[in-house]
């Protein structure tokens, strides 16, 4: 992931972002349903929200823009879905969120568990999370994978909103 960020030489328009909320989510799982509704509800309430598909411009360096948006946000909302751990970008975002959270305890992480349980996030269990990490362990250095696992464990242990078939 660091290689992807360093490889990009574009200057981002996010050098000093100040978002109230940063949404982290797996595009394919939640973009056209839950995230769209959540984003609209937050924007309609006057909340300044970072949503990558709305805020990034063609030519922006993706990694630095997202990192700046994370650092400049007051609240982070990771929306965990069954495919969240498949995405190295989602895991990288979450690790960045946790790093910022640890350095400034005035900001909040408000997790949403969308058809996935907190236990599966915390322990990387369940077929998709387990399988995703088996693949990540083949492709990435152990310290990167450990950082991702630690971030999932910390955030999976936070009180969050659980969305399932009953809600």
UniProtKB/TrEMBL annotation:
Domain TIR span(s) in chain numbering: 17-152
Pfam family, one: TIR
Key words of the record: Hydrolase, NAD
Gene3D superfamilies: Toll/interleukin-1 receptor homology (TIR) domain
The organism's place on the tree of life at top rank: Eukaryota
GO molecular function: NAD+ nucleosidase activity, cyclic ADP-ribose generating
SMART domains (UniProt xref): TIR
PANTHER family referenced in this protein's UniProt entry, alphabetically: TIR DOMAIN-CONTAINING PROTEIN, TMV RESISTANCE PROTEIN N-LIKE
Catalytic reaction equation(s): NAD(+) + H2O = ADP-D-ribose + nicotinamide + H(+)
The protein's name: ADP-ribosyl cyclase/cyclic ADP-ribose hydrolase
Coiled-coil regions listed in the entry: none
Enzyme Commission (EC) number: 3.2.2.6
Species for this entry: Protea cynaroides
Gene Ontology biological-process entries: signal transduction
